[in-house]
Amino acid sequence: MGTSDIIQIGILCVLAFTLIAIWLSMKAQWKLLGEQKKLTAAELLRGRYEMFFAAWDVTEEDVRQFKEKRHLYTEGMEDSTYENYKRSDDAIKDYLVIVQLYEYLAFAHTLNTSSEYLGPEPKADDPYGRQWVERWIKILIEDDEDFPHVHESYEKDHPDFHKFVEDWKTLNQKTLIPREPRFSWLREDKPRDREQETG
Fold it and tell me: Tens digit of pLDDT for each residue in 31-47?
């Protein structure tokens, strides 16, 4: 074995060690990326949790805005329904709470349908995932009289979520018992006292 053969073997050994070092480095980076992805998913879920429980304060200023700037909250709502809401601050507050919940559910739905955020793996363990959103939809359809008005008013703001709700309603129509919308007793386009709703 000549000197050139030994040099070539040495070069091959160096290349082999270099490739092994690169492979080990890439493996470590992939593991680190996996850990970072889990950490990002956990932080996102924490943010969603905090956002959910921080979104329920409706102020008198919100009520005033509802009365003075209809276009902000009630696009597509019938005039008679809006006028009856305006006659009761409590009804307005109830409506605005559902608006906040609707906005949050639309946000959660977007995350659940986008692999850009959590990817396919963390979704299965997401406590605010698809099953949670569907459970809230069922509760709101069956138990909340303001949800139908909010759902229609925010169709253009959240068209994908609106379609998701409509598709879910169709799929589950045999087991759903929808709540009558607030002011469903109206038969004329004129405001009436809210007390008549339960009378």
Answer: 777 777 766 766 766 66
